[in-house]
Design brief:
It contains one helix and 15 strands. It is mainly beta and 244 residues long.
């Protein structure tokens, strides 16, 4: 009898902490879709939880932390929803960590997510990207920032930095064009890089000095890669979107 009761209690404990199910809307998203994650928990205690934070971990992991804020008692299930946003085409692992009190380490649940181009789109002949990547980006380098404006298949990129003498400078790619790079098997914006400076004449004019070729391309959730030839050397930066 005592053994039966222990088994029953253990079963109820396992049910109370049963793994929730993760699903996405839409089920088969494209880069043009805004993806919403639904977390459903069918435990008997009906735990109530809310999304606390979301971040991207290179190369392809989206990490979401949920906070357990109580129990609603006995109910069929409880749900929480979190907007992941628009993602470039690719395969991701969505990892949800339950910040439940008294459980160490906190339980985690993983669900793969695939974002695909719709039929007939995204091939080498695509005229323009399905997304707009305009925004502010950080490079991981002190004193640097990247600003991108995008207009369909055209883009303007500016890298704010400092020269070797510590003077502020702007390096720009004003003519970025969307293209398919067959050698790298990727889409990218490609153009010419210039160093711009304010002249000493009155009224002052902006002088642009050609530097070389440059490209930038989407690399994941709110990230992009920038590659350019500047003063005869190859400069590479990983761009991460900066949210105000």
């Amino acid at each position: 009898m005592r053994f039966t009761v222990l088994v029953l209690l253990a079963s109820l404990g396992m049910a109370a902490h049963a793994a929730p199910t993760l699903s996405f809307e839409p089920a088969n998203p494209t880069p043009a879709d805004t993806i919403v994650l639904t977390i459903r928990d069918s435990s008997p205690t009906c735990p109530v939880f809310a999304p606390a934070s979301t971040r991207f971990a290179p190369p392809n992991e989206i990490r979401l932390v949920v906070s357990h804020i109580g129990d609603c008692g006995f109910a069929p299930f409880s749900e929480a929803r979190a907007t992941l946003g628009q993602l470039p085409a690719g395969t991701y692992n969505v990892v949800v960590t339950d910040n439940a009190p008294g459980i160490t380490p906190p339980p985690g649940y993983t669900q793969p997510l695939t974002v695909s181009f719709p039929a007939g789109a995204g091939g080498p002949n695509a005229a323009a990207p399905l997304e707009n990547y305009a925004g502010h980006y950080l490079t991981g380098q002190n004193g640097e920032g990247v600003f991108i404006e995008q207009f369909g298949d055209k883009s303007f990129l500016a890298l704010a930095s400092y020269d070797s003498e510590g003077r502020p400078e702007w390096l720009v790619m004003p003519d970025g064009r969307w293209r398919y790079n067959a050698i790298r098997s990727r889409f990218e914006f490609a153009g010419s890089m210039y160093r711009t400076r304010r002249g000493q004449e009155s009224p002052p004019a902006i002088h642009a000095t050609p530097l070389g070729a440059g490209v930038w391309y989407p690399a994941g959730f709110e990230t992009a890669m920038f590659e350019a030839t500047i003063d005869g050397r190859i400069v590479t930066r990983t761009l991460r979107r900066f949210r105000f």
